[in-house]
Design brief:
The structure is a homodimer. The first copy, chain A, is mainly alpha-helical. Chain A contains 3 helices and no strands. Chain A has helices at 3-45, 51-71, 76-84.
């Protein structure tokens, strides 16, 4: 799936409610999902992980990041191209 | 760009150092990038935003999220498909 197609899917499906919530409220939701991802990674580190749940938390963080991009006017695929592909991408470790 | 191709690019380029750093250390780096994104969104909300910088912060958060997926065995594109496309995706607001 193209990054741009996923961003469009999230826009088509959720833009109206996401836009009404606004960047601050949406960042709070995003942060909750980041917390859930942290918990899932921590459980995995302690040998008590659930890979299906971990996978779902990654999907949720990416979806909410995409939502934030939609309501702040950012094209994620263009952003990735500019930072990680044009001119060979960043030197060193990112 | 395919989500899977971006994940492979990050893997090809950075997996060795990312893997050596491990999930906890990498989550810390990811969190720093999330903080930078929060700052860029906050500046935009206060009317003092720099859209190019905001775009770059989104790219960095997505790159570090992808790194975390690589070192915890998660296929981001499969995760997105399972959560947001199979069976029509989640009901309601995500």
């Amino acid at each position: 799936m193209q990054i741009s197609a996923f961003q469009q899917h999230i826009r088509d499906r959720y833009f109206e409610t996401d836009s009404a919530r606004g960047p601050a409220g949406t960042f709070l939701w995003f942060s909750e999902e980041v917390g859930e991802l942290a918990q899932a990674i921590g459980e995995r580190e302690r040998g008590d992980g659930d890979q299906a749940n971990l996978e779902e938390e990654f999907a949720d963080v990416l979806a909410w990041l995409t939502t934030l991009a939609n309501i702040t006017g950012v094209d994620l695929e263009a952003a990735i191209n500019r930072k990680y592909f044009e001119n060979g991408g960043p030197a060193g470790t990112k």
